[in-house]
Give the backbone structure.
Amino acid sequence: MNDSRSDNVQTAQPKILVVGATGGTGRLIVSDAVARGYDVAALVRSPEKGADLKGAKLIIGDARDDSVLQRALEGRTAVVSALGTPVSPLREVTLLSSATRALVSAMKAKHVSRLICITGLGAGDSAGHGGFLFDNVFFPLMLRKVYADKNRQETVVKESGLDWVLVRPAVLNDKPRRDSIRTITDLSSFHGGVISRANVASFVLDQVRSDEWVHRSPLIAW
């Protein structure tokens, strides 16, 4: 594990907005945050999509709609973006960058500064560190267009002027949470790995109250 900055632990319970709350990782983020006693709002496309997000206030609407985002951000102190998009081998992908651009604009308008954004192994300088099959087969055939948009998304976040953290999980699975994970920024000896969605959710929520990884892009893996 890399050396870290000293934590800046907040005393008040966070009031977070989760964008992408109905995905596999997003649902765990919501349930974990509620279990921690956080005040949680979840932005969802329809009431049916968010019906099982117990303990969260549902905001209904499109994540690219400024008026929806500003309403969702009312009274919030931090945002977690768990936005995802399906594999798209042929069609161009723009959802991640366009929604993140709208989110950053709305956060600035509402004076919400903390943004934790999940991208993935293969984004930015983590490209080429997924192992032979991931880097040479799955990525170029299935993920190239998705990750082109993840790269645009990361640029939007890095240029936002917010207190951002970019979280890059290794390949996701649904196994139980482990007590410890690796947080990696020197990728020279990393060539593929996995992590559970439960561990990602826990790590992401830790960043809501800590300055340890602000303005950095840790890759997390078992």
